[in-house]
Hints:
120 residues; mainly alpha; two-stranded antiparallel ribbon; 48% helix; 7% strand
Amino acid sequence: MSLHLSLGEKIAPKGRILTVSELDVATLADMRPLLIEVARSRGTISYSALIKALDLPHATNGLGRILDLLSEDCSRRDEPSLAALVVSQSTGEVGEAFWGNPASERKLVYQIWGEIAEAE
């Protein structure tokens, strides 16, 4: 799966400038299929479980940047954000910085990826 973000590209989610790095490209390439599987099972994944599953070099509270890039990538694909599936283990909900309504976004994610799974 190719990304819709390019190495070195600058994007401005939530008013801050982010430059897409090699690590971002690699992380997103690994993260997207994992989160699609989570969506197909109509589940969520905790920040810590995501870090462990992908062996990410991020702190649990340091995923905001990559999740913002993931949301941008999903937006460019005309998809709801897979970032809505990444939640706090203690609350079962996304972090405060999530842009939008996470419950509505998850419903759309489950709907899209569930339909794709059924069609396969």
